[in-house]
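Ligand-bound model needed. NDP.
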Amino acid sequence: MVNSTARVIRVTKYGDASALQPTNIPRPIPKPTQVLVKVAYAGVNYVDIYERSGNFPSPLPLIPGREGSGEIVEVGSEVQGFKVGDRVAFIGKDTYSDYAVVDTVHLAKLPDHVSLETGAAFILQGLTAVGLIRKAYAVQKGDWIVVHAAAGGVGLLLSQLGRLLGAHVIGTVSTEEKAALARANGAEHVVLINNGYEALEKKVRELTNGEGVHAVFDSVGQATFESSLNIVRRLGTLVLFGNASGEVPPLNLMRLSSKNVKVTWAAVYNYITTPEDFNELVEDTLEYLEKGQLKIAIHKVYPVEDVQQAHLDLEGRKTTGKLLLKIQ
Ligand code: NDP
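Prediction:
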């Protein structure tokens, strides 16, 4: 049965985790090109924190959530290839909700052996990690790469993929516990970050005979940016893809000339603009999962009622791997 209302988590004023409040609203109606999904799990991503706090200003009121999984309960008249009852995972908007309307370009049917929990856990971070490591900088065997926040949701996946591709992965983390996890997930070397990134710069110099790394995958942003520029080698690539510590300051491009460094800010959405590109990344990521080459570590499945705690844990650097909300 499809309800006429949806219970959602809504933000009416930017703020801390207490801005996340449950409420009931009329259920969203899919356009002819969309499906309606009864959401089982919504992934919690750092971008939800940027939106909640106003760092990525979105019009208010807003419902956070960029991904989820569940069952299709209604299909728009122009939709092809999907039907009511299909189990799906998707990248979308407003997914902290009983129901989500989803464009088919970012909708994937889940194979029978993939659970709804895994579906919501892999779809955004998995595609991000695979997309970044292939397209933002195509990691090669023997490369040295730095992965910041290596025990985080995306970081653990980048570390695994880096090792799979034959690269030497140097991860950064803030605790011993996270260091052990990063090592177990492919980081050959791990640097504990306490006060600043000098220890990382020293380690990189030692390991690479002073040359620096081929690529830095940097989701921390403001706090790591200068150091990332320092440790990247001549002709190397700095891949920025997140702002966990804040946005990076403006960059004078002339600074790149000393090493001909390439700097990119990579959003996964630009790798999945067509169904073909989206499906290719989904199929490849699922294949990695099936072969055991990629493992998703779920930190915790929070009941949706505990959404504030989930945000506090993620922004408080208390989590590793993937956070999910059990919606229903
Ligand atoms: P994580 O699980 O990686 O959590 C963030 C981690 O960043 C923390 O655990 C912490 O690890 C580290 N960190 C370092 N400095 C800070 C700081 N000042 N404040 C908070 N955290 C800090 O989150 P996600 O896996 O959800 O996301 C990782 C990053 O990837 C985010 O920046 C996100 O925006 C980005 N992202 C980008 C996408 C894109 O398309 N560009 C898509 C998906 C995610 P530690 O304590 O070990 O330092």
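Residues 116-136 form the longest helix (21 residues).
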